[in-house]
Amino acid sequence: MRMNPTRLIGxxxxxxxxxxPSFSERQIGDYIKSKLSAxxxxxxxxxxxxxxxxxxxxxxxxxxxTINAASLLFSAHMDTVEPSRGKTAVIDRDGxxxxxxxxxxxxxxxxxxxxxxxxxxxxxxxxxxxxxxxVLFTVAEEIYCQGISRFNFQNLKAKDAFVLDLTGPVGTxxxxxxxxxxxxxxxxxxxxxxGFEPERGVNAIAAASEAIKALPLGRLDHETTLNIxxxxxxxxxxxxxxxxxxKGETRSYSGEKALNCIExxxxxxxxxxxxxxxxxxxxxxxxxxxxxxxxxxxxLGLFKKACADIQLGxxxxxxxxxxxxxxxxxxxITGLVLASAMEKVHSCQExxxxxxxxxxxxxxxQLMTIDPNDL
Length: 375
Ligand SMILES: [Zn+2]
What we know:
With 375 residues, this protein is of the alpha+beta class. The protein has helices at residues 5-16, 26-38, 48-52, 107-125, 146-149, 204-214, 255-276, 298-309, 324-330, 354-369, and strands at residues 42-45, 59-63, 72-77, 90-91, 96-98, 133-138, 160-166, 172-177, 179-188, 192-193, 218-221, 224-233, 239-240, 243-252, 279-288, 291-292, 315-318, 334-339, 351-353. It folds into 2 domains: 5-177 and 290-374, Aminopeptidase, CATH 3.40.630.10; 179-288, 2-Layer Sandwich (Alpha-Beta Plaits), CATH 3.30.70.
């Protein structure tokens, strides 16, 4: 193994110490920039930070290849979910790496970052032949992929990509992901005193409730879900509320079904508002488009060869989560999302292991160094 586990684990635990909640990725951005520069990459930062009100932009870099082949992109996100401040990595004797229990670990997505940096380090250390490489480290991925949505894809040449951002044993890759559409409904009624003149009021909460009750929430079919996740309204128990705000999302492997679902939600709110004499406003946002990488695409051949080379079982899966890969697809880049040594993400029980970290770094190295002309 060319991997240096001591260096890799050391770098990972160093990363964990960095606070990097969404929109505050400055410190990790600077860390990555200096590492990439030292490894000989040309490094850039875009203006996504300013556009989003964060303190750091997307970081991207290029390394000329020594193998005559098309560029290949590797990507991971720099932000972590909360609670994340003051993270510390604790390494158990069996190789499990976890937080102290009061924060996330940040393996989502620092394990991906550590693996990409380690692979690039080994390429330089051993002077290994490699493809032309592009790397992209994004901000604000955890807030519905906002960072990458501000990225100018003219910057990249690569048409194939690996996004390191998935749970499951290393060797797992997602080739299919859903469309995700969020929505906000504001129901406007008329306020009045609930005891003195309730007849004059139009209860916005009651109207919203009727609409919600009419909606089929949960799993609508084998590939579609609908959820109401937030409801807010009312000022006091003795006031008929004139405002109720409802937020939710739908996701589906079929973009059309997701859009139909959004139409259904609006229709139910329209009907209920009408019945109550209320009005409403409805907005929605497509936060991810659905994608499916064709199973005959060359990127799958590359992935399978890399897994076989390092005796790793490979497993292709569908995911029901969005990732930066959805946005790559929208911009003409075909990618796979790789399981990258993270488990129980978005919780204080999040963990990784030293073995899995080594495996994802080894797999990343393999993907970077295989000559696709030999496939
Ligand atoms: Zn992630």
